[in-house]
Structure formats: C-alpha cells, structure tokens
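Review form for a predicted model. The reviewer records the input and the model, then writes brief findings.
Reviewer: anonymous (R2)
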Amino acid sequence: MTELIVDFAEKRGWKNEDPNLLLTSLYIELAEMAEHYQWKNKFPEFSADKKREIGFEFVDILFYLLRIADQSGIDINACFLEKLPKLEKKFPLDVAKDPKAILKVKEEYRRTGKNKLYE
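Model under review:
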C-alpha cells in the first residue's frame, strides 16, 4: 500500500514536507470515522452502503498514516513485522484471554514506566 500511495503522491507532485499538515489531515479523517461510532457502546450492524462509506474513511486514514511514515523514512511494514512478535510476547494467549492478566500487564507498565516491547 505504501508504494501505491508514494506513487500516487509523486505523480501529482505532492511533496508534503510539513508533517503538521499531514498529521492534521489524519486527525480530521479519524474524527470523520469516529462520528460513525460516536455514542455507541458496541459495534453497530451497518448497511452495505454505510460499510462502504466507513471503509473509505479507513482508506483516508491509511493514506495519511502511510504517507507520514514514508515521509519520515519509516518502513511501516518492517516495523509491523518486528513489533507483532513483541506484542505476542507481551500478551501471550493465556494473558490475552484473561482480563485480569491484561490489567496486571498494564498496571506494571504504568508502575515501572518501562515498556518491555522496546527492550
């Protein structure tokens, strides 16, 4: 996806040298998506048309997010593949299925201020 976005932007001459503009655009798109879920306490069952509309918001969010990563020289795919095993280690299946265990992991992080994912 990043390659498609980079190509799309380059063909249009979009330099996007100001990260604040990209971040602001990302926040706006996140807010537009959030409106679809605002005041709901569970995931609603959307119609096909509504799913498509919300899906396009996700695409806008991904566009800006991947553009920011690319402009920052970050290989988001490599980071994802490196971090996923760290998350699996932090939240093994026995922890991931136990709300009390998840809370304990989060409390330990808050108490120590250390994130074991980056050690």
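Findings: The two ends are 29 Å apart (CA to CA).
Further findings: The chain is about 70% helix and 0% strand.
Recommendation: see findings above.
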